[in-house]
Amino acid sequence: MATQSYVSCVLCQRASVVRKIATIRRLSVAANPQSKPDFLKGEPHKRHPGVTHLKTLRLPEELLMAARSIIHRAQVPQLPDRARKLTNFLWSRKRATEDSTLRKKALSLEKELWEKAMEKGGADLDEQGIADRIHRRVFSELRRTFYHWTPLKYDEELGVVYMAAKLAGGYAAVRRALNEIKKRDPTFAPRSLLDFGSGLGTVAWASHACWSDTLNELVCVDSSGPMNILAERLLKGDDEHAETHIKHIYFRQFLPVSPKVQFDLVTSAFTLSEIPSAPERQEAVLTLWRKTATYLLLVENGTKEGHQMLMEARDTLLQNKDKAVYDTREASLFAPCPHEATCPKLMLASVVPCNFQQMYMPLYGHNSQSEKFSYLIMTRERRQPPEADAQVVWSRLIATPQARTRHVHCRLCCPNGHLEHLVVTTHKHGRDVYRCARNSAWGDQLPLVQHTDDQNDEETTC
C-alpha cells in the first residue's frame, strides 16, 4: 500500500508540472501573438488553405445520361469483361523501348553469340548458316526480354469500351487536379482552353465544372476521328439534333499551326503514354508549353511509368530545353512538387510512383471506386505557397495521414527536396498544425511552423 501511495504521489507531481508548463506556454503565446503565424486566415481546420482534395465525385448528370445511352445503343458484346481487360492493359502499359537501346542490346548479343560459335567451330565454319541462326536467336531474345509496345487505334466499338472503362475515373482525376488550381489561385479565370489528346472530352467537362462562367473557347485535339465523334455525342446528350451542353467547343485532329497562338489553360490527360519515343514526348511537351499562357496540366496513370513520363516532362521544362522561344517567361512548378529538385522518389532503391487518389462513382453501380493518378502543373507565373508566411512551410502529403490517439503519422515531400515521416502532435507542432493534419488527406499540403527557439531542438521538421 505504501508503494502504491508513493507512485500515485509521484504521478500527481508530474501531472502538476506538465500543467504548469502548458500554462506558461499559453501565456507566452498570448503575450507574444507574433509567435503564432495565422496561416488559417480565419478558415476552419478542415478547410485550411492546403486542402485541395475533393469528396467522392459524380459525373455531371448530362454526361452520365449521355454515356449510358450511347453504351445501351452500341450493344457491345461482353462489355464489362472487355472494359476490365482494357483497364488492366492501360494500367500495366510501359513505354516503348528506345531504338538506341534495342540496337545496343542486339549488337552485344550478336557479338557474344559469334564468339561462342568461333570457339566451337574452329576453322571449318559455315558462316552464312551461323549468321542466320545468330540473327534468329537475337530477334527471339529481344522479343522475349523487351516490352512490345503497340499503339492503340480506336474505332467506334473500342471507343465505347474505353468509355465504360475510363470515363468516370478519368473525369475524377482531371477534376481533382484542376481543383488545385482553382483553390490555390482563385483569381485565375481562364477564357481559353486547349486539350491535347482530348479523347471523350473529359477535360472539357471537368474544366466547365470549374470555370463555366469565363471559358468561351475550348479546343479539343485528338487524332482519332471516332473518338471525336463520341465526344460530340456526349456533349449533345446522344441526340444529334440537340445543342451541345458546353458552348464554344471545337474538335480538331491537329494542333493549331501558329506557334504564337496561346491558351490560358493547356491540358493533356493520359496522352503522353500514347507517344512512342522519348524525343517525340519531349517535343510534344515543348509544343504544348509554347501554347501555354498561364497553366499547363499533364495527367497520367498513377503507375511507375506514368510518374516517370511526367518527371521527364518536368525536367524538360525546368531545364528550358526549348530552342524556339516565343514567350520568355520561364516555367515554374505549381503542383504537386513543393520543390524543383530531383524527385526523391526516383532516387529510392525500388522506385515507387508519386501518385494520388480520387474517389468517384462509376457509370453503373452504387459503390464508390478509387482512381490513382499522377499529375504535373506548370505555370508561367511564379506562385507563392497557399497563404504564404515566412514562418510556415507547406509540404505535400504523399500518403494518407494515419491518425492515432493524440498524434498523426504524416509522410511528406518537403520543400528541401527530401521525403520525411513526421509524427505531428499538439505538444511539438501546436494545436492548429495538429488539427490541420487530422483534417488533411492524401495529396493535400500540410503547413508546418518553423521554430527559431530552442524549445524544439529535438523536433524534425521539413
What does this structure look like?
This protein has 462 residues and is α/β, with parallel strands linked by helices. The protein folds into three domains: 61-91 and 154-379, Vaccinia Virus protein VP39 (Rossmann fold, 3-Layer(aba) Sandwich); 99-143, no CATH class; 387-462, Beta Barrel (OB fold (Dihydrolipoamide Acetyltransferase, E2P)), CATH 2.40.50. It is built from twelve helices and 13 strands. Strands 1, 2, 3, 4, 5, 6, 7 and 8 form an eight-stranded mixed beta sheet that branches. The longest helix is centred in the N-terminal third of the chain and has 30 residues, at 2-31. It is globular.
Q: What's the topology here?
A:
Elements: H1 2-31, H2 61-74, H3 79-92, H4 99-121, H5 127-145, H6 156-184, E1 192-196, H7 202-211, E2 217-221, H8 225-235, E3 249-252, E4 263-269, H9 278-290, E5 292-301, H10 304-318, E6 332-335, E7 356-360, E8 369-379, E9 392-397, E10 402-404, E11 407-413, E12 419-424, H11 426-429, H12 431-438, E13 445-449
Parallel strand pairs: 1-2, 1-4, 2-3, 4-5
Antiparallel strand pairs: 5-8, 6-8, 7-8, 9-11, 9-13, 10-11, 11-12
Helix pairs in contact: 2-6, 3-6, 4-5, 6-7, 9-10
CATH superfamily of the largest domain: Vaccinia Virus protein VP39
Report the oligomer: single chain
- Would you identify the regions where 5 or more consecutive residues have pLDDT less than 50? 27-35, 453-460
* Beta-strand percent range: 15-25%
Top-tier CATH class of the largest domain: Alpha Beta
Number of helices: 12
User: What gyration radius follows from the Cα positions, in whole Å?
Assistant: 28 Å
- Residue-averaged pLDDT, rounded? 86
**What CATH architecture of the largest domain would you give?**
3-Layer(aba) Sandwich
The CATH topology assignment of the largest domain is Rossmann fold
